[in-house]
Amino acid sequence: MKKTLALCLVALMCCTVLFGCQSASPAPASSPDSAAPNSAAPAPASSSSDAPAAEAISEDDKWNDMTDEELYELAKQEGGEITIYAITSRMPKTCEAFMEAYPELKAVSTDFDQNEAVSKIEIEAKSNNVNADILQCKDSAGEIYYDFFPSGYLETYYPSDICSTIDPELLKYGMPFYVGLNFWYYNTAIHDSAPVSNWWQIIEKDESGNNKFNLVFQNPSGNDTYMALYCNMILLAEEMAKAYEQTYGKPLEYTYDASKTPGVPENNAGYEFLYRLSQCKLTFINDGDDIVEAVHASSTTGIDTLGFASAGKITNRDENGWDIEWVDDLDPFLNVMNANYLYLVKGCDNPAGARLFIRFLMGGAEGGGPGFKPFTKEGNWSVRSDYTNPNNPFAASEVKSIPTDIEGVYGIFLDAKDFWDYWLAKSPMK
User: CATH second-level architecture of 182-333+410-426?
Assistant: First the structure.
């Protein structure tokens, strides 16, 4: 991953989003029987930065204001099969609903590992054999927006009506589809309510230097989403320091040695938290179901356990009767919104059909359409303000969930990872 910061061009990208989604005088949509707009994105503007240029949006912004009906007419003229490279196994269900709603079109989804999907798109573009129309992906640390998107294999699509229902902060780095959240889980047989309300309480130790809680989670070294969480914590160092002082009534004492790893500043509360966490007794488990099962089992083992895993693992509470619940309030923030993004593949065969599929996938013009239904399990949150997943107990905006700062995370990601790896290796609690 390159470590270029592109503040100016990110600002331009934000302007592009606002132009595509909130234009006061949008260009009139073409009639259904008119020729399709040019779907090719112009080459990024020359710059010393590796960040995408604002011009990466489609050359003809009439796409953004087209209705479902107009896109459908153009998609029928394309006559192809809309192909989605996805990182989820739920997308085929949306494809089925899509073909029922638009019987003259076909849609097929292939489930890939993200790196595999990205590599496949690049190879196909270089061989002039573009097969995919849409990429669904995550971008926890900016590897898509800063490393892959500038290569010119993808383009963005910002449908005006749908974008008007989305927080502009979530639109900075692409078209968001839904957000996933990660939570600390606690055992409800041991605690009537969450035993912690502040991040610093999670890593408390007693006078003997033992953890107050048994901490179970995936090693952040092997999970970009988890490492990006701590990067956001580093970027919010002032808030982390205030949270410590509010809890313990005294200023935070900095105990890490910044000189041991390059690029790490002194007296940063986020790095201090990461250092103290690395020196705790930790249990690393890769599977989220196994993590929350360990939390459930703590009522019988007598070891009070907190486990960090994706929100969707809460379904084990109802399906398996496990004694688990989310910690749903932490200072200074609860968790980070990890957005899934949708991109069009540049030069695809079905530019209108792909855009129609994206609109359908996001619930259509009104937000409650059947395309998003396969993604409404408890623990997934739509990015739209006009739709609430009925399976979730609250909206992401109702708790202390924050949009991830992908630009900031990208700039410090490798330094933070090196810092974590170094001090974890030095931990006496291994």
Answer: 3-Layer(aba) Sandwich (3.40)
Cβ-Cβ contacts under 8 Å for 300 (sequence gap 6 or more): none
Closest Cα to residue 406, out of 160, 235, 164, 208?
235
Question: Half-sphere exposure of residue 115, counting CA atoms within 13 Å on the CB side?
Answer: 1
Mention every residue, 6+ apart, whose C-beta is less than 8 A from residue 152. 41, 43, 44, 346
User: For residues 140 and 144, what is the distance between their CA atoms, to the nearest angstrom?
Assistant: 9
DSSP-derived secondary structure letter, 26:
P
- Model confidence pLDDT, tens digit, residues 365-421: 999 899 999 999 999 999 999 999 999 999 888 999 999 999 999 999 999 999 999
Tell me the C-alpha to C-alpha distance, in Å, between residue 148 and each of 229, 379, 393.
21, 28, 36
CATH number of 7-23+39-179+339-392: 3.40.190.10
Terminal Cα-to-Cα distance of the chain (whole angstroms): 29
- Please report which residue ranges of 153-301 form alpha helices under DSSP H: 160-163, 199-202, 224-235, 237-248, 269-278, 288-301
Q: What tens digit of pLDDT does each residue of 179-215 get?
A: 999 999 999 999 999 999 999 999 999 988 899 999 9
User: Element (H or E) spanning 355, and its range?
Assistant: helix 351-361
Lowest pLDDT segment from 40-54, 226-240, 348-362: 40-54
Q: pTM for the complete prediction?
A: 0.85
Q: pLDDT band for position 37 (50/70/90)?
A: low
Nearest alpha-carbon partner for 216 in 145, 293, 143, 141: 293
Residue 356's nearest CA partner among 10, 78, 2, 38 is 78
Using only the alpha carbons of the chain, give its radius of gyration: 23
Kind and range of the H or E run holding 155: strand 154-155
Beta bridge partners of 324: 187
Domains 7-23+39-179+339-392 and 182-333+410-426 fall in the same CATH topology: yes
